[in-house]
Task: structure prediction
Amino acid sequence: MTAPPVDRVPRRPPSSSTLSRRERERRATGGGARRSAPAALLVPAVVAIAFLVIPLAGLLLRAPWGDAWTILHGSQAGEALKLSLWTSTVATAISLVVGVPLAWLLARTEFPGLRLVRALVTLPLVLPPVVGGVALLLAFGRNGFLGQYLDQWFGITIPFSPAAVVMAETFVAMPFLVVTVEGALRSADRGFEEAAATLGAPRMVVFRRVTLPLVAPSLVAGAVLCWARALGEFGATITFAGSFPGRTQTMPIAVYYALETDPDAAILLSLVLLLVSVVVLVALRDRWLRGGAVG
Amino acid sequence: MTSPDRATPATPATPVTTEGLVVDAEVTRGGFTLRAALTAAPGEVLAVLGPNGAGKTTLLGAVAGLAPVSTGRIVLGDAALDDADSGVFVEAANRPVGFVFQDYRLFPHLSVRDNVAFSPRARGLGRGASRAAADTWLERLGIGDLARRRPADLSGGQAQRVALARALAGDPALLLLDEPLSALDARTRLDVQTELKRHLAEFAGPCLLVTHDPLEALVLADRLLVLEHGLVVQQGTPSEVARRPATEYVARLVGLNLYAGTADGAHVTLEGGGSFVVPDHDERGEVLVALRPSSVVVSAHQPDHSSVRNTWPATIAGLTLLTDRVRLDVVGEPSALVDVTPAAVADLGLAAGQRVWLSAKATELEVYGRSHSP
Result:
């Protein structure tokens, strides 16, 4: 039996090429790993940068800088910003209080239906927010299956109140925190917890003094993601809480309505939101987001 | 038959004292089962020796309460820590145990002082008192100046001392050390080993020291226990174990040739082929024969008139230069490791593939009964 004929690998002659002085230096200092990008990667990457940056530039270019103060002052901006800031902060706080234990449960325990629970609690990540708003309305609305009893027994009406804003934001934003913290807990070294146990620490002490500090970067990253998502929440909020200026009209909703009546105000409100986001990003940049967002 | 070296698993050789540790249990983890029976008296350092995967760390985990036993019990003093029959299980946090982990596991987010203060604090001391206790221990281990550092800024030897201080600061009744020196480089290891020996001597309770380094075990331990494949294959003082290894693994550790065979008075027929004439202590039945590599004599030709009782032909399979001697791997009936001087290698022109004659005096052979796996 003869072996099938094998194609010979064509041998290419070493073609002469040149290396610019700069490129030579770059490769030398970067250990060969840092090189200029090939065009096939560079071009799409630049397109991506342009796509992300140009709209923001548009905001800056079209902003009515001259009348900025008068326009902002005359609009509902202050109230809307205040509402947005405090509701998203409360939503983040609620997410921390119940979301971190949930993340721990998902990462560290086993119970029947664990996978189903994980799928359900992360569903809002992919669910269109407006669907979340409808669902909240059906559950907690005045005629909702829970809401009707709240109304009848306690006289509590949630929809179209600031509380509804907080609930809508929490519903949409908490999964970001849960997913981030769960990932961190899953990859955290359990050895430290064992060590803490052998040192006499009861489980809650281990959680408080060892587990939480070890995942602190991810905790902060998750909280920031959660807060940012809550700040930008639109669909679920407008469905469940409506748009009453000063009561349930958050910044994104104010921007949307302003665009129809007063485009200049919309631009300025958007810039305010942009500014808030940039400030948060810069403040947390190196300290937390780098290591934590991965875990 | 049982050799005098071995403690029978069911009945501990050492009498149970008030604060001694008694383990007689099976621990199952995944598909692996550890069957361990051992005792450690107060103040005694028991080295647990064995190859990777023998169950050493599993044993420590069970004693510390990180994993429950599946059958049997673990008792410290007169209190059961774990008892599969009665269901008693003291949680790890409630066991008076100090555990020094192989990788130390110092909390990276706490200073050295807070690491050492962790146990006193967790066991109910106030913040100030815990820190004071930590400082005392840091001073005692000669690392008081490291108190404010983070674990990431410590050298290996420093981290090892901090780990020991942290384990001792909880005032444990029982000390567990998992390969305490294995993460150190050779030079630091010697320093730390000497220090560790001193601290272990000061410790009043029983101490289990897991290691795969026989020298560490010989230096630090009062008694050795050898685990293989989840079973205790030998227990005894370092000198007993070094003289009469019970298995091939132990023999390799202590550097002896070991042969299994059947004794009939002054004659032992070896299982791997060949036979030995041995001193007649009227041993009969299954025995082990230990032979030091330096006690074997190599000759280029068959020695004719000699008082040596054992002479056999063999072939050199390989030579390895050890620091001051050459170790020959010689294949024959039986095969043997033989130590000779470099000069002898040159004089006899020894090389791989060469036929030689080996001889060993009967009095150099240590013959003892064979133990069976429990």
Summary: Residues 255-369 of chain B form a domain with the OB fold (Dihydrolipoamide Acetyltransferase, E2P) fold (CATH 2.40.50.100). The interface with chain A takes residues 64-66, 91-95, 97-99, 101, 103, 105, 107-110, 118-119, 122-123, 166-167, 170, 176 of chain B (CB under 8 Å). The first strand of chain B starts at residue 21 and ends at 29. The radius of gyration of chain B is 24 Å.
